[in-house]
Amino acid sequence: MRYRAFRELVTPRLRLRKIRMTDVDAFYTRLGGSEAVTRYMLFQPHKSVEESSASIEKWLGRYEAGKCYHWAIALRETDELIGVIDLLRIDEEAESASFAYMLGEAFWGMGYGTEALTAALDFAFRKMEAESVVADHICENGASGAVMRKVGMVPTGVLAAKYLKNGILHDAAGYRVDRSRWFASHP
Predict the structure, then answer these.
(1) Quick one: 59 exposed, middle or buried, by C-beta within 10 A (0-12, 13-18, 19+)?
(2) DSSP structure class, residue 117
(3) Residue 56, Cβ neighbours under 10 Å: how many?
């Protein structure tokens, strides 16, 4: 698996681009500060725009380091920020990666998550030459699993008590897609 330079990804309705400081208000109100969006994330909702600003500054620094695949999910026609998606836990030796994403609540159920995840996975397999991509989600977040299944990922099982959120241990449902399966369904 190879690191490649960050590149913008374009889909029929979305632009996956670098996040910018000008996105901070939308990031705070739609994502980081939203109780609904962060309900199953491993962090607490941001309490201020400054907290969201600090997150964006951290990502901007990672772009500079050259090994960051953190995309802002923006509507193609308006460039309006509606979510974020990352390829992370990149393991060059195992030629694998994982991902995480958040989508603003007003944009749930419209296929944007599936469209963004398809673009990120396609980048992982075609450009980074990954052999596999894995991910999991807190079991109560069935919508996340539905998105993973829609893009062709297969369930790998449940890991008991994997994530601690608000003092409660949650089981995690795992998913995986390998290179051959990806290219069979996305020629």
Answers:
(1) middle
(2) H
(3) 21
d(Cα 63, Cα 60) in Å, to the nearest integer? 5
Q: pLDDT tens digits for the chain (187 residues)?
A: 777 788 999 999 999 999 999 999 999 999 999 999 999 999 999 999 999 999 999 999 988 887 789 999 999 999 999 999 999 988 888 899 999 999 999 999 999 999 999 999 999 999 999 999 999 999 999 999 999 999 999 999 999 999 999 999 999 999 999 999 999 999 9
The alpha-helical segments, DSSP class H, found in 1-103 are 24-26, 35-38, 49-65
- Return the sign of the alpha-carbon dihedral for residues 111, 102, 97, 10: positive
Q: Taking the complete model, does pTM exceed 0.90, yes or no?
A: yes
Distance CA 54, CA 44 (A): 14
Residue 167 tokens read as 């003092």
